Amino acid sequence: MRIIPSPIISLIIVSTSRKRLLLHFDASAKTSTGQSLNSILLNGGSIQDELFSLVNRFRTHKYAFNADIQKMYRQILIEPSRRDPQIIVWKETNNSLLKIYQLNTVTYVMVSVPILAMRVLKALADAEHEDFSEAAKIISRHMHDILSGATSLTLEKKLQVDISELLRRGAFELHKWVSHHPAFLMVFLHQNIHLKIRSRTQ
């Protein structure tokens, strides 16, 4: 297998509280051969519902909510024999020794990532369908953002619990919960979770 490392742009972010290094991978940068990593990877197509269908379905719910899977890509391991394209060549300074690192999880700039992530969520939903049938259907339709709802507040809260527990069995955590109904978000007040309440008039 040819190994085409992704070029990295490093950004040093300085704030009043801390300084941190952010890395940006460019898997579409061409090498001397005229090829990039993305040009030799298969994108796998899509198994996610069309955006129009997702939004249209979301609008039908009397009680609706939205949540995000926290650091989803960092929870998905790549099979060890498939990690060679995910190497990082790194030097601290011109005089430093060359270091080579390998990423073990899916990397968001690669064209194959959406299908890999979606396939993992679908496999998890299929595996847990017997315990969480409705939650499994919802997870199978989405990527890292969950858009759903119910006809009553009681059912909405049950969905929240079931979706959270199903994803937790795959080592995924939901955060950034959003709902137009304050009562739905009350359950999170004792947790360190980012919440947002939207009134019907907004």
UniProtKB/TrEMBL annotation:
Organism per entry: Araneus ventricosus
GO biological process terms on file: DNA biosynthetic process
Top-level taxon: Eukaryota
Lineage summary: Eukaryota, Metazoa, Ecdysozoa, Arthropoda, Chelicerata
Protein name, entry field: Reverse transcriptase domain-containing protein
PANTHER family found in the cross-reference section: PHD-TYPE DOMAIN-CONTAINING PROTEIN (PTHR47331)
InterPro entries noted in UniProt: DNA/RNA_pol_sf
